[in-house]
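User: Is it possible to get a 3D structure for a protein together with its bound compound? The compound here is flavin-adenine dinucleotide. I've pasted both below.
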Amino acid sequence: MKIIVCIKQVPEGVDVKVDPITKRIIREGVKSIINPYDLYAIEEGIRLKERFGGQTWVISMGPLQAESAIREAIGMGIDNGILLSDKKFAGSDTLATSYTLSLGIKKIGDFDIIICGRETLDGSTGQVGPGIAEHLGVPYITYVSKIVDIRENEIECIRLMEDHYEIIKTKLPVLMTVIKEINEPRIPSLKNMLRAKKIEIPIWNAEQLEGNDQFFGQDGSPTKVIDVWTQTIKKDGRKIEGDPEVLAEEILKELKKLGVL
Ligand SMILES: Cc1cc2nc3c(=O)[nH]c(=O)nc-3n(C[C@H](O)[C@H](O)[C@H](O)COP(=O)(O)OP(=O)(O)OC[C@H]3O[C@@H](n4cnc5c(N)ncnc54)[C@H](O)[C@@H]3O)c2cc1C
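Assistant: Yes, that's possible. Here is the predicted structure of the complex:
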């Protein structure tokens, strides 16, 4: 079985800064991590290989620094990694991102299962997984909470809906997006980390993907960001210090002032 996991490197934390002119997230100089949901996708890929045999790949589209995310996934136990990186990919919206990733996946070759996270920490659209499936012409199952079985080229999954679960069966190849409930991501092992340090990560550019330039990056992105702003979080807290008795009185006074009591 050939399993391909899509991972994205995202800025760590919620303190995301946006360039006021380009309206794009400032990624330079910001500590980056693997999108947390993608850790579940990586783990599920490794577990599928452990259950059914085969080989696992991770693929990421992003700047050269995204190579570290690929090495981290290999440290967890993924076999191979590919980075798609080219200036032409800059400014990609979800349509251009899923187009570029679908070309990378085609170049890796025949596959049985593609696994994505349910969404990212920064963009959070949840559109890229289904977008890749559409570009590749394969079925997709979103919000998968459990892979029940894979038998005779057919997969059975449980997916989460708003207030219930669904059991879905479909033929392979398939793309799925997974939710946190599906597993507990493992910690990288020393053996795999040593392997990850040494392994060569091929970097494929736009020319190697043999796509149509008009569908890459900004040119291939119909989404226009009109405005972006950050939310200011008001902190109205007041620190009260002193003896417990005085403190209790002060707290009571404050609560009365607020109309809570
Ligand atoms: C006009 C415009 C310009 C933009 N320019 C840039 C830019 O220059 N650089 C930039 O990084 N972003 C840019 N973005 C943001 C970019 O479109 C999204 O971050 C990207 O398309 C992924 O969408 P998402 O974060 O909502 O992913 P989701 O759809 O929420 O992600 C779901 C899953 O898809 C997979 N996935 C998503 N993105 C990737 C990826 N890149 N590689 C591998 N797997 C992935 C992961 O498994 C992830 O868990 C731009 C957006 C707009 C609208």
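Residues 2-220 form a domain with the Rossmann fold fold (CATH 3.40.50.620). The chain has one domain: 2-220.
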